[in-house]
Amino acid sequence: MAGAAVKGVAAAPLAAFIRAALERLGADAFSAEHVARGLTETSSRGVDSHGVRLFPHYARALEAGRVNGRPNFRFESRFEGAAVLHADDAFGHAAGVKAMDWAVERARRLGTASVAVRRSSHFGAAAYFALRAAEQGLVGLAFTNADALVVPTRGKRPFFGTNPVAFAAPSSDGEPFCLDMATSQLNWNKVLRARESGEALPPAAAVDADGRETRDAAVARALMPSGGYKGFGLGAMVDILCASLTGGPCGPDMLPMFTSPIAARRDIGHYFLALEPAAFDEAGALARRVAELRARLRAEPPLDPAEPVLAAGDPETAARRLRETDGVPVPEADRAAFAVVARKVGLTLPWEPV
Amino acid sequence: MAGAAVKGVAAAPLAAFIRAALERLGADAFSAEHVARGLTETSSRGVDSHGVRLFPHYARALEAGRVNGRPNFRFESRFEGAAVLHADDAFGHAAGVKAMDWAVERARRLGTASVAVRRSSHFGAAAYFALRAAEQGLVGLAFTNADALVVPTRGKRPFFGTNPVAFAAPSSDGEPFCLDMATSQLNWNKVLRARESGEALPPAAAVDADGRETRDAAVARALMPSGGYKGFGLGAMVDILCASLTGGPCGPDMLPMFTSPIAARRDIGHYFLALEPAAFDEAGALARRVAELRARLRAEPPLDPAEPVLAAGDPETAARRLRETDGVPVPEADRAAFAVVARKVGLTLPWEPV
Questions:
Q1: Model pLDDT for residues B24-67, shown as the tens digit of each residue
Q2: Which of A93, A182, A188, B168 has its CA at a distance of 20 to 30 angstroms from the CA of residue B317?
Q3: Could you tell me the pTM of the whole model?
Q4: Is residue A349 a contact partner of residue A18, using CB atoms and an 8 Å limit?
Q5: In what order do the strands lie in the sheet with B268-275?
Q6: Is the pLDDT of residue B5 over 60?
Q7: Quick one: which H or E segment has residue A117?
Q8: Residue A155 in contact with residue A118, Cβ under 8 Å?
């Protein structure tokens, strides 16, 4: 597979590198496995903002003690169909998989189940966990809160994080339906990219230091909620599910991911919900209908024939197909950050000849 | 309470009139009660689009047989924490209350529970059902699908309905936190009002007959999703929960509410979810934290001091306080439509002296 034609890095050696590096830095096999899979699968789906570029940061967070690589997970379940997972400052990917798997197991028996997670850390893309339920035939929802970055409607300073909502449902065409959306209009990465390119930001997407709407990425300091008060309300819903339910900190009380001391623990909260489709109709019926619905959406007449209608998740599926052959692009700056970790743990980089 | 100073109609006699009229038209007590309460409480919260103005339409739908006023509700529950309610073409308000009450009862025992509803009809405001859970101390979510009115991102004709998402959580300050949002940027009523006033529509809110964005309400024929592809994805999520789970029709397969024959049944689907906060922390903790969160949001510095930051549901709470004294405004056209029903069933109108 190596050679001049390969534009990116193949997913499997990339995941193997991340897994091995995290283990050498002290993470247990379960944590290392799910961070590696979560980041790599997210990059494979084209969502670079939440993919492997986060690995060097995660490695530093593990070394510094912000994240506990050998967590003692503890489920507290007073009711059969719900639990709190005390995640012991685990990697969010590991905590999220533990929590969603619990919800899936209970939903298979009860129809509906949910888990709130305390004392976790950044979990990457919410889609990873919703898809984990859908790949097992269930409907999955995943939410996380985050540090303050989105201004309330009428407000001037950030309060909630980008607080995403992810939803996935099984589909008989082989690819789950998957929506994963921040409740802000943009993600911060798009602001950073617009700063580099000099492009104007879309309207109603960002504010400056005084809380005034701006289309100039250079002066943007915070984000606006998606669809105005609707995104603000959804962001509040996510914080209530992820923090108010269990007593975790809400947006403004949470340390920022990149600018707070790397040893400081952040106490992020998540919320996961699983539904067993067989509780609502014969097994397999939902997956057939989701495939039909998606086929109908894709066949809707487009406004511009060059831009067909897409269902949620279609851009990610297209990216995954492309990257299965071309690999995951890893920009030079990320390669350098990977190399720092590789030297420290004595591993060969996944793009180096063995 | 009568007199020249009363601008509106007091809620209690309004509800009593609707209840009595529906019973005289053949509805059973449960159906009449919940349509009357649902419409009146929604009007009391200032949401006139989904309030008592719908009553004359509901009365015609009942008379014509679109809606079954004496439904035989049947729960089909193969799993303890989930069920399908076969609603027998009931009023959506009645079906929704039955379904949410089932979810609340099971969530109290299991922590999490949900109900999908088949063969229902228009249920008014989704908030009514989410609030019903929150008023009993639980977190409630309510969703419904609807006939096609919102164009897919990149599409040119409507596919999903306005497919709302409602979320409510208990709060120790006495008023549940409540978000109720269409997944379109506007509701159709705002387009109708802009047609009357001649005001321009906001950007990215409506399209003309060719599917092109327009700010001219006179030529608007369909709505755009809230926040672009995000609202489109949320609308799909709502249709999957309300229709794909059980096999009900999705947006384009559903008869429109006002323009299809009044005897035709519509087979609307709903989905309700309830969470017991005591499954996640000590009883009462969530309600205290929601009250704190709301107080903090309201105290956030506003961009314009004349427009304080509001939490989801605050405008509705303010409207309710006002209307508790001033009554519910019932415009002349609606009064005339009420009068037609009143004559038919031999009842005195709630704004007439007895």
A1: 999 999 999 999 999 999 999 999 999 999 999 999 999 999 99
A2: A182
A3: 0.96
A4: no
A5: B74-79, B82-86, B112-120, B268-275, B139-144, B165-169, B177-181
A6: no
A7: strand A112-120
A8: no
pLDDT tens, residue by residue, B321-333: 999 999 999 999 9
**For chain A, how big is the Rg over CA atoms in Å?**
20
Cα B34 off chain centre by: 13
CA dist., res. B263 & res. B89, Å (int): 11
pLDDT digits (tens, 9 = 90+) for B232-248: 999 999 999 999 999 99
Exposed/middle/buried for residue A208 (C-beta within 10 Å: 0-12, 13-18, 19+): middle
Domains and their CATH numbers in chain A: 1-64+324-354 (1.10.1530.10), 71-184+225-299 (3.30.1370.60)
Cα–Cα distance measured from residue A110 to residue A51, given in angstroms and rounded to the nearest whole number: 34
Cα separation of A78 and B121, whole Å? 37
Closest CA to A244 of A163, A124, A325, A153: A163
d(CA A123, CA A129): 9
The interface predicted TM-score of the complex, written ipTM, equals 0.96
In chain A, what's the furthest Cα-to-Cα distance?
57
Other CB atoms within a 10 A radius of the CB of residue B197 amount to 9
pLDDT of B354 reads 62
Q: How many CB pairs under 8 A join A and B?
A: 260
The number of angstroms, rounded, from the C-alpha of B193 to the middle of its chain's C-alpha atoms is 19
B109 and A CB contact within 8 Å: yes
Distance CA(B139)–CA(B41), nearest Å, equals 19
Q: Read off the pLDDT of residues A285-329 as tens digits, 9 standing for 90 and up.
A: 999 999 999 999 999 999 999 999 999 999 999 999 999 999 999
Distance from CA of A118 to the nearest CA of B (A): 10
User: B288: alpha, beta or left, given left = phi > 0 and alpha = psi -120 to 50?
Assistant: alpha
B152·A300 Cβ contact <8 A: yes
Yes or no: say if B150 and B224 are a contact pair by the CB < 8 Å rule. yes
CA pair distance A145, A301, nearest whole angstrom: 37
Distance, in angstroms, between A78 CA and closest chain B CA? 6
